[in-house]
Amino acid sequence: MPRRHRGVAPVGGAGGLMLPFARVTLIGLGLIGSSLARAVRATMPTVRLTGYDADPAVRETAVRIELVDDVADSAGTAAIDADLVILCVPVGAIGPAAAELADDLPADAVVSDVGSCKAAVARALAEALPGRAIVPAHPVAGTEQSGPEAGFATLFHGRWCILTPEAGTDATAVERVAEFWRRLGATPEVMTPEHHDRVLAVTSHLPHLIAYTIVGTASDLEEVTRGEVIKYSAGGFRDFTRIAASDPTMWRDVFLTNREAVLEMLGRFSEDLASLQRAIRWGKGDELFDLFTRTRAIRRSIVEQGQDDPAADFGRSHE
Ligand SMILES: NC(=O)C1=CN([C@@H]2O[C@H](COP(=O)(O)OP(=O)(O)OC[C@H]3O[C@@H](n4cnc5c(N)ncnc54)[C@H](O)[C@@H]3O)[C@@H](O)[C@H]2O)C=CC1
Ligand SMILES: O=C(O)C(=O)Cc1ccc(O)cc1
């Protein structure tokens, strides 16, 4: 088991020439499932890829665009000879999808997922697949698009992939999943599911909630017409509209699943917002200036570290 430090630990890079897995099954062929299929094809072309999606139209598209070697017509059939099964479905569907294939899963298969929340998902996976090797994962990479045609092979390049195995999970299974993500261009890191959920509540879930709110509020304002919202949506607001175009099912599930951490961070955010409101009301320019100086420095250090989000540019350049 990789060492844990304050809930976070890098995963040692054993590397090697052997493929970590030879037969990979993807359950859910939307943005992330189809990006995984394309990335596996590009980086591990001898891997046999099988896919399944609950939506017949998605299965049809997957066949038409030759996304995987085989599109199965049930989750169980897709899993039957896999050595890695990755659940790429909305977080609320991960437990049910795992239960659906449990009886057909080979004894030595490793099961993973890509869900944006980890604590509740890890519990659902452990319950659906008792005694199995489970290595939950979250690639911190995506866009506001969804569906099988939105994916692309380079989505995971230069991005983190957070692994949240339970203490006591077979170390070889963890290392094989870590190596799988390294081959796709991502950097794996291990942390506890609880730590993951608190960090992502601030860095991803809260920003999405704010974007959904601000776009909703702007379009509800009586003195601003919907036409004006579109016409004058240059600058900051435009960036919010990209995020607020993210998949409704996926994000409903994220907020209902990571409820506690999101509510905690939202409480903290509301307090900070109220203090900004006071600073504006009482003309405290120094307070505003100090905060904006601090946040500008944060943005600059993110850009310097080369962690600016390519997904943002991807979204914009394809509009
Ligand atoms: N969209 C993003 O930017 C990112 C998403 N994620 C996570 O990846 C997962 C998938 O998200 P996307 O690919 O964006 O969504 P998507 O909406 O593009 O694809 C999800 C697919 O799962 C299928 N599905 C739903 N329930 C199913 C079931 N029970 N069995 C089989 N297929 C089922 C749907 O028909 C759909 O095709 C989610 O858990 C999300 O939290 C993680 C990182 C980034
Ligand atoms: O499109 C964006 O800006 C994102 O933030 C993509 C994203 C969405 C959900 C995740 O769990 C990880 C990445």
TrEMBL record:
Example of a GO biological process term: tyrosine biosynthetic process
Enzyme class: oxidoreductase
InterPro entries: 6-PGluconate_DH-like_C_sf, NAD(P)-bd_dom_sf, PDH_C, PDH_N, Preph/Arog_dehydrog, Prephen_DH
Catalytic activity: prephenate + NAD(+) = 3-(4-hydroxyphenyl)pyruvate + CO2 + NADH
Pfam families documented for this protein: PDH_C (PF20463), PDH_N (PF02153)
Keywords assigned: Amino-acid biosynthesis, Aromatic amino acid biosynthesis, NAD, Oxidoreductase, Tyrosine biosynthesis
Prephenate/arogenate dehydrogenase domain mapped to chain residues: 22-310
One MF term in the entry's GO annotations: prephenate dehydrogenase (NAD+) activity
Listed NCBIfam families: PRK07502.1
Family: Belongs to the prephenate/arogenate dehydrogenase family.
Protein name: prephenate dehydrogenase
